[in-house]
């Protein structure tokens, strides 16, 4: 595991203004500010601990980890992902009440997709049969 992460600008006399926008949305504010003010590197395990990365794997395990994650994602409904991805990012900047309203509207549209109709029916069949 050779990956290291830094926000380097401060070491060159420049505060990293635009990277700070994304960083503060991924890392606890105090950690983000520390990274922005020190320009110090953190290792891959620390990046995971701080929430900058999802996971850390050994170099020789990287291809398998990518394949596993990719397989998990592509096995899901393309329609659900098509609705979910933009909703996930758009709602982040909304007021809480507006985000819930927007999410409910998008969910209603997604629920009309064939994949969702089949999935909900299968869930209900399984639970109605098992509960009687």
From TrEMBL:
Going by the UniProt record, its keywords in alphabetical order are: Fatty acid metabolism, Lipid metabolism, Transit peptide
Keyword DNA-binding assigned: no
What Pfam families does its record include?
Answer: ECH_1
Instruction: Look up keyword Nucleotidyltransferase and say if it applies.
Output: no
Organism's domain of life? Answer: Bacteria
Which family is annotated?
Answer: Belongs to the enoyl-CoA hydratase/isomerase family.
* Function as written in the Swiss-Prot or TrEMBL entry: May play a role in fatty acid biosynthesis and insulin sensitivity.
**Stated name of the protein:** Enoyl-CoA hydratase domain-containing protein 3, mitochondrial
Q: Which organism is it from?
A: Pseudomonas mercuritolerans
